[in-house]
Give the backbone structure.
Amino acid sequence: MTTPGRTRPALSAPGLDRAAEERSADGLIERLRADAATRVLVLHGDAAPLAATDRPALHFAAPGDVPASAEWAFLGRDADGVAVLSATFGADASAPFSAPGRWAGLRAVGGDLSRDEAGLFVEALSLGRWLLEAPFCPACGARTELRGAGWSRHCPDCGREHFPRTDPAVIVAVTSAQDPDLLLLGSNAAWGADRYSCFAGFAEAGESLEAAVVREVREESGVEVASLQYRGSQAWPYPRSLMLGFFATALEDAAARPDLDEIAAVRWFTRDEIGAGLAGEGDVLLPGPASIAHRLISDWHAGAE
């Protein structure tokens, strides 16, 4: 849970009642697809259809308007008790229909959707990617059978049950111990030289989140950190991460240096420079509003660290 009075990451809302107790009902997907009241969030790769509205909003299709070849799953029920399904198509397939507005990816519009729709989008995309990418048993290689209304797979050969995988990762905004108006960010070697973000990496086997924060920041920036503050989490289905956000304080600002492998550059930014970047001005590109990195940086800029 985030500290009271502090903003939550854009994709951290529950979205809807997942109604997990319904997943074991026989023929649930088939019954809901036959019900015209059911709403369907269709995914084409990592994009969803938007409604023809001024502010980004998801477009929900009727079951009969969606090709049956999709990978189907039960997402839950909305505030009115209406069932919501996801129907996922691979990016290599043709778009199943023309969106009333346009098709848009989670990275592009997740931060502009309502909190509930953003949470629903990330749920559908996280589950949909698993449905498309993990049809075979990792233990014996047999094709699995979908169960749990799209939330589990059963291997008919070896009997194992498989579930969507989630990998915990830490993401850290590093503040200065000497100057409260300085924030350390890094530029990934795969990005352009003007793009900066927080330091991030996966927690390793047998490693606590706190230890992962210290290790990742040291590896990527050369800085030792202390005074860790947990700031919230959000799912990030690229490919299947749960991002856990932290603030941490550098013990020695002058130690900052890039590893020149994953991180090409590190830089201490002033509060004014960060403000300009958040406003789309200045010489630095910062993460978009759908990411928890954006929330960490904007909270720091607002003095909410």
